[in-house]
Amino acid sequence: MEALARIAKAAAAAGASAADAKNNAAAGSAGFAYGLAAIGPGIGIGLIFGSAIESMARQPESAGMVRTTMFLGIAFTEALALIGFVVFILLKYA
Amino acid sequence: MNQVDSISILAMRDTGPAPEAAITRDLVKHGLIAAPVLIGGSAAIWGSNGALSCGYGVLIVLANFSIAALLVTRAARISYALMMAATLFGYIFRLALVSAAIFFVRNLSWVELLPLGLTIIISHIGLLFWELRYVSLTLAFPGLKPKLKNSQSTFSTSDESTVKP
Hints:
The structure holds 2 protein chains of 2 kinds.
Chain A: H1 2-13, H2 18-58, H3 63-93
Helix pairs in contact in A: 1-2, 2-3
Chain B: H1 3-6, H2 19-78, H3 80-103, H4 113-140
Helix pairs in contact in B: 2-3, 2-4
């Protein structure tokens, strides 16, 4: 946040109008928020797949059910990233 | 250490039926059923541009599911290590594809970003919850697997023989 404020100040010092500085800060914030929104699902997918591999190693005969649950779990986790992306798009362009 | 203990799970591969493909077929089928409702709702609120954007959003979601299933299914046939790579890097790859699919069309005249974004979120989560209805009961109590009159089983697993009541 401090970095974004610094960007806005630098833009203002460079002669950009207040509206331009605000737009630049908004674009930076939106990109920053989208990046943050993608981190959580990335960690979540890693955890899901790690647990799935562990389950398949313990009980290979249940691999089909584990993969079913894993696929749905990954898709649900990915929904968080999609929400972040859609919010980014709406804030930036709508 | 005997030979069985020394085999890594990552070196193994799955040659059984692919549940991801079956789930995705089901998701696509449900998506095609739900699409007219979503498109009709968007058309009522945002007009024809909203309907087109909504249809494009449904297409993105169904393509996203299909690509995910294709990557995981193909990779599992080769090795679990590759499946891990396909799952983790596939997430980034598919997110980039969705981003590109929206960025390339965002300035076109028929694109309304609000219905497009809402459709992506609602259809993605809605389809998953719809599919979960069939999967959750089956996982906890295989004997309660829903039986639909006019359709086949929603998916098959490698231990299909144990699922029968």
